[in-house]
Design a protein that fits this description.
Radius of gyration: 18 Å
Oligomer: single chain
Helix content: 55-70%
Shape: globular
Number of helices: 12
Length: 306
C-alpha cells in the first residue's frame, strides 16, 4: 500500500468514525419518535460541551484557539447541519435522511476547491459518483422520486451545511509552512459543541420552541447519542488533519450503508435487494480512494488569514 502512512491511518480512523455516526443515526431515529429532533440535537451538543469543559477545567486538554474565523464557521455550519439532519430523521426514514445528508461530499469538494485550493484528483471524480450511486441503490430511491417534503428539504439542507463545516475543519486543522499553527482536535471540537449549542438551544425554548420532558429510556438514548457523536466527531476531526476533504467525504459514505443496515436490523426497516448491491458499490468506492496514495494540494495562503 503506497502513500503517506498517516493518511492511511486517518482513513481507517474515519471508517471507525462513520460506524459511530451510523449508530448515532439509529439512536436518533428511535428517540425522535417521542421527542423533537431539535431537542436531540441540543442534548448532543450539551454532552460534548460538558466533556470539553470538564477536561479543560481538569487541565487534561489545552484550548488555544487561533483561527477564529474558521472555528466559528465550523461551529455555525456544523450546528445548523445537525439541527437539519435530526429534524429530517424525525420526519422521514433514517435511510433516506442519511442518504440526503451524505451527499455532502459534492458540496465539500466544491467548497474545498474554491476556498482551500484543493483540486479534486481524477480518481475522486470516479469514486465520488460511484459511492453516491451506491448509496442511492441502498435506499432504493431515484432523484425523480424525491418529493419536496419538509423532511427531504431538511436532509438536503444538512448536506449543504455539512459541506461548509467539513471544509472549515480541514482549513483549521492543516498546517501550512510559515502560516499560523494548526488548531488542535479539541479546539475544533469545542467550537463545534459550544457554537452548535448556541445555534440549537433557541429552538427548544420559548418563544421559538418548547422542551418536551424525556422519559428515563429517552434520556438513556439521548446520552448514547451524545457519547457516540462525541467520539465520532473527535475521530473525524483528527483524521481531517491528514486527509483532503474529497477523500474524507468519500470514506464517510460508509455511514449511510451502516445506518441503513442498522435500521433494518434494529428498527425492522425493510432491507431491499438494492441494499446489497448499493453497499458493495459504496465499499468499492471507499476502498478505491482509501488504498491509493495522497492527492495533490494547491495552497492558497489567503485562506489562512481568516
Amino acid at each position: 500500500m503506497s502513500g503517506d502512512p498517516r493518511a492511511r491511518a486517518a482513513s481507517w480512523s474515519l471508517v471507525a468514525s462513520s460506524s459511530l455516526f451510523a449508530l448515532m443515526a439509529v439512536l436518533t431515529k428511535v428517540v425522535t419518535r417521542g421527542i423533537p429532533g431539535a431537542e436531540a440535537a441540543v442534548v448532543r451538543f450539551a454532552t460534548g460541551a460538558v466533556v470539553v469543559a470538564g477536561l479543560w477545567v481538569g487541565k487534561h486538554i489545552d484550548l488555544r484557539p487561533r483561527r477564529w474565523g474558521w472555528l466559528f464557521a465550523r461551529g455555525f455550519f456544523g450546528g445548523t447541519a445537525v439541527l437539519a439532519y435530526f429534524s429530517a430523521m424525525q420526519r422521514i426514514p433514517v435511510g433516506e435522511a442519511t442518504l440526503l445528508n451524505y451527499t455532502q461530499p459534492v458540496f465539500t469538494m466544491l467548497g474545498a476547491w474554491l476556498m482551500l485550493g484543493e483540486r479534486p484528483p481524477r480518481r475522486a471524480l470516479v469514486a465520488l459518483p460511484l459511492t453516491l450511486f451506491g448509496v442511492s441503490l441502498i435506499v432504493g430511491i431515484r432523484v425523480s422520486e424525491l418529493h419536496a417534503s419538509a423532511g427531504e428539504l431538511m436532509g438536503l439542507g444538512s448536506a449543504v451545511l455539512s459541506g461548509g463545516a467539513v471544509t472549515a475543519v480541514r482549513a483549521s486543522r492543516r498546517q501550512v509552512p510559515g502560516g499560523p499553527a494548526a488548531e488542535s482536535a479539541w479546539s475544533v471540537f469545542a467550537s463545534f459543541t459550544f457554537v452548535g449549542l448556541a445555534v440549537t438551544l433557541p429552538t427548544v425554548v420559548p418563544p421559538l420552541g418548547h422542551w418536551v420532558a424525556p422519559t428515563a429510556r429517552q434520556w438513556a438514548l439521548l446520552l448514547g447519542i451524545g457519547l457516540t457523536s462525541t467520539v465520532a466527531q473527535l475521530l473525524l476531526t483528527e483524521a481531517l488533519q491528514h486527509l483532503q476533504v474529497d477523500r474524507a467525504g468519500i470514506i464517510s459514505q460508509l455511514t449511510a450503508a451502516f445506518a441503513i443496515g442498522g435500521g433494518a436490523i434494529f428498527l425492522g426497516e425493510r432491507l431491499s435487494p438494492g441494499f446489497v448491491a448499493g453497499a458493495l458499490i459504496t465499499l468499492a468506492g471507499v476502498a478505491f480512494v482509501t488504498l491509493r496514495g495522497p492527492t495533490r494540494l494547491l495552497e492558497k495562503r489567503r485562506v489562512e488569514r481568516l
